Amino acid sequence: MKKLLLFLGVIIAIVIICIVVMIYLKTRPLAKDQAISLIQESLEKKVDKNETIPNGLLRIESSQLEFSHNFTSGLSHGVPIEDDQSFHTASIGKIFTATLVNMLEERNVLNINDPITKYLDDKVIEDIFVYKGIDYKYKVTIKQLLNHTSGVADYFEDPVTSGPNMRELMIEKPDKLWTPLDLVKFTKNNQKAVSSPGQKMHYSDTGYILLGLIVESATGKSFHENLHEMIFDPIGMNDSYLMFYSTPKNPEKKLNELYFEGKKIHTYKSLSADWSGGGVVSTLSDLCKFSRALNKYKLVSKETLDNMYTFNQKYMNGMYYGLGVIEYHFEEYFPMLKYLPNVTGHMGVFGTQMFYDKTSDTVIILSLGSTDGTSKSVRLLIDVLSILARIK
């Protein structure tokens, strides 16, 4: 419900802003310097003076437009934020997990149609796939975890049978270091499955924790070792790492300030409540490298990427899900946005966005570092795409 209300607010805001955008879209072409100025202005408007969104980061790289620029606004730790600042990417991390799984399939280490019981001990998944009295754990596949159709609950957002939910616990217990098994047990002890496998799309961080455990089981290596060896190191993501589990190849930068429901939490150990569901720390430059490598078939083949980009699960109006990847259909928010391309990537609860437009070979990375910035980050992405469409 919270997500639906959030995106309802986004849609209302879009209706207001896109009318103005469309009036000038075709009649007022922009030079690149004008576009840069407008994008900077849009970013600055999203940074909140009440300090729950203290700064913003944005990178745009487009080969077709011959456009490459970093944008910053606001302060980080009391000084102007720099464009190489490291930040928590939140659920953008899911696309890394999905990419790892698909890379392992190409190497014949696993098959995404395998049942998850081939890799996970029965005790790990005990009771979490019970729906209407029937335990479906033997019927759940890796692919169903990837596209959120396994039926498992979401430890991060779903209601609990009793006691505080995970979002409350993150604030109440800032020194709690959550292990992956802790997160799965939270669903086991406090939540119920939402459907039988394959019956409905239900976004689940629990499912992505299970995918991280499958990667470890299939490879005999830790999840973070796989991230570094298979993705970060080969493509030069030298400032990226898995929070609480690894360090970057370059000297580690101070993590950008992070706000969760109004609380500054970038020093909280409870941020460990993500792991393979969204625990990657990165930079604008590194995420741009990843998006380029993925979409240029440097990590997986075209056939595999096409499979990942089969968006047949509707997450909500305007958002469709593939295998660990989101595609925006902006015209579903408002018909006058139909001129905008469908872009592919992922977003995160901390106002993070990483998307790729194949029609213009454009990568857009942004972060507002706050749960208060989730809807604003969608509006900023629309602003950016609208401005880029006017460059002549």
Overall description:
It is a single chain. This protein is α+β, with helices and mostly antiparallel strands. It has 2 domains: 2-92 and 277-388, Beta-lactamase (3-Layer(aba) Sandwich), CATH 3.40.710.10; 94-228, DD-peptidase/beta-lactamase superfamily (Beta-lactamase, 3-Layer(aba) Sandwich). Helices cover 34% and strands 16% of the residues. It has 11 helices and 16 strands. The strands form 4 sheets. Strands 3-2-1-16-15-14-13-12-11 form a 9-stranded antiparallel sheet, with helices on both faces. Helix 1 packs parallel to helix 11 (374-388) and helix 3 crosses helix 8. The longest helix is centred in the first third of the chain and has 24 residues, at 2-25. The N and C termini lie far apart (42 Å). 50% of the residues are buried. The mean pLDDT is 93.
Short description:
The protein has 392 residues and is of the alpha+beta class. The chain is 34% helix and 16% strand. The protein folds into 2 domains: 2-92 and 277-388, DD-peptidase/beta-lactamase superfamily (Beta-lactamase), CATH 3.40.710.10; 94-228, DD-peptidase/beta-lactamase superfamily (Beta-lactamase, 3-Layer(aba) Sandwich).
Please describe the topology of this protein.
Blueprint: H1 2-25, H2 32-46, E1 55-62, E2 67-76, E3 79-80, E4 87-88, H3 93-106, E5 130-131, E6 134-135, H4 142-146, H5 166-172, H6 180-190, H7 205-219, H8 223-232, E7 241-242, E8 259-260, E9 263-264, E10 280-282, H9 284-295, H10 302-308, E11 313-316, E12 319-321, E13 326-328, E14 343-348, E15 352-357, E16 362-367, H11 374-388
Antiparallel strand pairs: 1-2, 1-16, 2-3, 4-10, 5-6, 7-10, 8-9, 11-12, 12-13, 13-14, 14-15, 15-16
Helix pairs in contact: 1-11, 2-11, 3-7, 3-8, 6-7
